[in-house]
Design goal:
homodimer, alpha+beta, Mth169, Chain: A
Chain lengths: ~80, ~80
């Protein structure tokens, strides 16, 4: 099973990397882009023997404990590819 | 309109950051996680006056010219939030 964890900076947190990319896009002429935020797309491949619920619970735990920093980031879990 | 560009390393490219996170997860006891790949989730807010097709074409251009490095990365465009 493939599961994606989307990790985004919380709305209240400044994103200097996104700001820099936004400025570069404006310089290239992409004036219709009003904002850019850059997060992480963490894709996990997980042992097929687990049930969907077990996998989701495990990924939630992994996200809390390591993948996202709860002080400045939010995360969202998405199943990308189911087994059978 | 909100559009996400998912930027992933090509399959043939090693991902040392993903490998490190994978090792850390194994140390924490997440033995069912078989692989970790880390990409970027670039979220763009775009002027509402554009049509969906115009937006998608512009984001494709921006991805080619700046957001992704075509030598080592692939990208995928996803509309997250439509206007109206």
């Amino acid at each position: 099973m493939k599961v994606a964890v989307k990790v985004r900076l919380k709305k209240s947190i400044l994103d200097p990397q996104g700001k820099t990319v936004h400025n570069a896009l404006l310089h290239l002429g992409f004036h219709d882009i009003k904002d850019v935020r850059i997060g992480k797309l963490i894709e996990l491949t997980i042992d097929d023997s687990k049930s969907r619920d077990e996998v989701l619970q495990m990924v939630e735990e992994a996200s809390h404990s390591l993948l996202a920093n709860p002080v400045i980031e939010d995360f969202e879990i998405e199943v990308e590819e189911e087994d059978q």
